[in-house]
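Sanity check. The docking grid for magnesium ion depends on where the pocket ends up, so I'm generating a full predicted complex first rather than guessing from homology. Inputs follow.
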Amino acid sequence: MGEIKGLVFDLDGVITDTAERHYLAWKRIAHRLGIAIDREWNERLKGISRTESLELILAENPTLLLDSEEKAQLLKEKNAHYLELIAEITAADILPGIPELLEEAKNAGYRMAIASASKNAPLILERLGLSAMFDAVVDPESLKQNKPHPEIFEKAAQALGLETQECIGFEDSLAGIEGIKRAGMPAVAIAIPIFAEWLPDIEVTATRELNLKEIVREVTMKERVEG
Ligand code: B16
Ligand code: MG
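Predicted complex below; grid placement will be based on this.
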């Protein structure tokens, strides 16, 4: 592996706590359909696209047969409620430790990208006052495959003009960790309770524990040992 030159961040749950707002918006839709979801169940929606999230919720009640118009209406309502929930977000909603990490990375010359499944990512970055911090934001509409497929992370590295192995990926979802690892990037997992097949290189329980120098040192050493 070459030197680490880039950092690729998921947005929801890594840069800001919009993951909770996605959950609340989905919970309302699910409740209307007579389906109960809780935070533990919601873990499987993290990093998953809007359309796929609805399908996973609907699969909880196979007797519900909705046509494509009804589904489109639910997707519209979910996003409208989500937009209400993020209407007031400001820089104060950036997760602890993230402003310092981004500042340090910028000053150290790392190139930085956002690899979020969210179509609302540019709007959220704008509201957080972070748009200028990133060299690239991958457009999820440009993807052929969603997380856990590695495409979004490959595109992020490409947009930075780097190899995937030269970047570190930061994620709060199992789907994201799988995507990062399949892209050949070292992965940092943030607040993920349990892992499945794909393991991260580094795990922290909260963003405030992220230490850029330590992370870069650890993934570089790990790569030297593992080859
Ligand atoms: P939207 P991330 C993902 O963002 C969320 O984790 C996921 O819960 C959401 O369904 C998805 O974005 C799509 O978001 O409805 O705003 O397009 O974690 O990849 O930054
Ligand atoms: Mg996320």
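Relevant for the grid: Residues 68-85 form the longest helix (18 residues).
Also worth noting: The mean pLDDT is 95.
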